[in-house]
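## retry 2 of 3
previous attempt timed out at serialization; input unchanged, resubmitting
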Amino acid sequence: MIRLNVFIQADEKNCAAVVETARELVSASLKDNGCIAYDLFQSATRSGVLMICETWKDAECLSAHERSAHFTSLVPKIQSLAEMKLEKFEF
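## retry succeeded, writing output
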């Protein structure tokens, strides 16, 4: 399995748009083959700090997800509005 933690830092003016786009990404990604979990978390203590936590069956499923229409359209939109950092774990 593969776990991705995607940390997102948005400024106040873009936060609502980032959250809306991230929710759309989560909703579509949950339907992808091999998606075990895909969740969006918002910090209770730091404004504009979000995390997407993803779990994938294997690298093949993750690769297909990264080529999907929703990924290739929504992730660049989030990147244009906020800073993103990725942590990847395989287990």
